[in-house]
Design goal:
The protein is mostly helical. The protein has four helices and no strands. Helices cover 51% and strands 0% of the residues.
């Protein structure tokens, strides 16, 4: 059984739903999902257009690591 992963305070249900739907759409490789997430949620954008913000990285990390827990 996988270890429970605590949800970071930055992560919302809307972020997770968006990422789930993006994955289901097949529009992009999920390793490139940061730019899509920041486009949908501009408040996450970092200072650089080339690198995902720390907030975005935290959301993506949680989404990846908790996937099997959320979808057993």
């Amino acid at each position: 059984m996988a270890e429970h992963i605590d949800i970071p305070s930055i992560v919302t249900d809307e972020h997770l739903k968006f990422l789930d739907e993006l994955q289901d759409s097949g529009e992009t490789n999920m390793y490139e999902a940061g730019s899509y997430l920041e486009e949908e949620f501009p408040e996450l954008s970092g200072d650089s257009s080339f690198h995902s913000s720390l907030k975005t990285k935290q959301i993506l990390k949680y989404w990846r690591e908790s996937f099997t827990e959320r979808y057993p």
